[in-house]
Write a structure and sequence with these properties.
Blueprint (H helix, E strand, L loop, with lengths): L20 E3 L2 E3 L6 E5 L7 H14 L3 E5 L3 H16 L6 E5 L3 H7 L1 H6 L2 E4 L8 H17 L3 E6 L5 H13 L6 H23 L6 E6 L3 H14 L3 E4 L5 E2 H17 L5 E2 L3 E2 L8 H12 L8 E4 L10 H23 L7 E5 L5 H7 L2 E4 L9 E5 L2 E6 L4 H17 L10
Helix pairs in contact: 1-2, 3-5, 6-7, 7-8, 8-9
Family: Belongs to the IspG family.
EC number: 1.17.7.3
Organism: Ahrensia kielensis
Length: 422
Amino acid sequence: MTKNSPNYISEPFARHQTVGVDVGGVLVGGGGDVVVQSMTNTDTADIDATVAQVAALHKAGSEIVRITVDKDEAAAAVPKIRERLERLGLDIPLVGDFHYIGHKLLADHPACAEALAKYRINPGNVGFREKRDRQFTDIIEMANRYEKPVRIGVNWGSLDQELLTRLMDKNQEDGFPMTAQQVMREAIVQSALISAELAEQIGMPRERIILSAKVSQVQDLIAVYTDLAKRSNHALHLGLTEAGMGSKGIVASSAALGILLQQGIGDTIRISLTPEPNGDRTREVQVAQELLQTMGFRQFVPVVAACPGCGRTTSTGFQELAKKIEGDLRKNMPIWRTKYPGVEALKVAVMGCIVNGPGESKHADIGISLPGTDESPAAPVFVDGKKTATLRGDNIAGDFENMVADYIEARFGEKGDTRGAA
């Protein structure tokens, strides 16, 4: 297949070269892996609830977790949360999300300022009018004192209205060369760049600055970050804000971030899903991992290939087995990452009939082709491309699960094979 073929899929573009930022031991930018972030939705002052959710997010694979610091009680709780996490053996960077009174909270709670790995500042509401630059300066000076990086996070829901008004007026004076939407995008980019420049003037090195410019519409996000990447080499955090709930939020975030990542833009990402009532907050971590893994940028958990089903697969056997295998793999990964180095590269196939089942199973490390409707009640299993067994009877699912476990131990355990070794 050539590059002129309509089905040609290009390799990812070269990564946008950004300055690396150390966030509590996690490298953001500088050519490192795209980092997965998440954010709690607990009241940070509730130490038990916040520790539990941070631990759950970390277990799911979040490499950095942001928490809200909006009041004295929350700021006072931060060092206790950090201490509790350390006692649990969880060394995960915590980011403080500050709005309106961040300068005061950091000054009044030095233990909070010390415990956080990074501060997030929104230039649109760090302060207003004559207080804005002064309060922004206070936070940057506090970050400098404790040698903490900052994320300057612009959000179009709280955009600096003075800057926007100036750009709108200038656009009118020039005869409206840009649409109102284009002016809005320019204001977002300028807000980030102006704030970053001010931070550097105050004395913050570029290797401690991360920028983000979040909007809630896919095309706006792509345009803003494409422009920002052209005009800056700061490390960039990607996220579609207010993405929404369920499939809408997943599709919108994946569409926007996927295009940017393919162009080499983005050093760390968060999928900002609205959780279902009492829903699992870790869903946003799973989606972020699946996006990066599907695009081939990183590997987090073994891949399970399963057919979509059709009239040949009227039973639910392969669906149930695929769900069970995938759930077991994800549940066990926190332990397996240490016990079985490299296991995240495993490929498992659970197929539903003879049409593509054997072929797809051969392409996987280990795969099973379950019998379709009216097919012989036998399920061939393929290991490393070769048929090694045929399962029959009422316990096909359980037998295959045991074979997967045995394969993982044999290949990735301490006495596993050394394929690829010199």
